[in-house]
Write a structure and sequence with these properties.
This protein is mainly β and 123 residues long. The protein is built from no helices and eleven strands. Strands 2, 4, 5, 6, 9, 10 and 11 form a seven-stranded mixed β-sheet that branches. A four-stranded antiparallel β-sheet has the order 1-3-8-7, with no helix packed on it. Strand 5 and strand 6 form a beta hairpin. The chain starts with a strand and ends with a strand.
Length: 123
């Protein structure tokens, strides 16, 4: 399984970015797709999760109302639309695939990780 994240960059506070995560290598239709982030000196933290139908989504409290996770099944791609970005959103963002509903939001439950994409928000 390969998860290729892209879309990071430098943006001013209040701006927006859309991250993409392209999945390949095997079918992940039964997996929960997640985004995590890790800021320098901090632990990796959960951001958002979704199933492939988009019928069930979960967001960390810190991003509710600002970030939206979605999927494009035809492209095997998961997106993270990030609006109203703030300097505290600065981190490396990772996409991930989790086979268990019981471990949503836990980095330890992730089965597959993609390489991260850097998001930097300037004040």
């Amino acid at each position: 399984v390969q998860l290729q994240a892209s879309g990071g960059g430098l943006v001013q506070a209040g701006g927006s970015l859309r991250l993409s995560c392209a999945a390949s290598g095997r079918t992940l239709s039964n997996y929960i797709m997640e985004w995590f982030r890790q800021a320098p000196g901090k632990e990796r933290e959960f951001v958002a999760a979704t199933n492939w139908s988009g019928g069930s989504t979960y967001n960390a409290d810190s991003v509710k109302g600002r970030f939206t996770i979605s999927t494009d099944n035809a492209k095997n791609t998961v997106y993270l639309q990030m609006n109203s970005l703030a300097p505290e959103d600065t981190a490396v963002y990772y996409c991930a695939a989790d086979s268990s509903l019981l471990s949503i939001g836990s980095p330890r439950g992730v089965d597959y990780w993609g390489k991260g994409t850097q998001v930097t928000v300037s004040s």
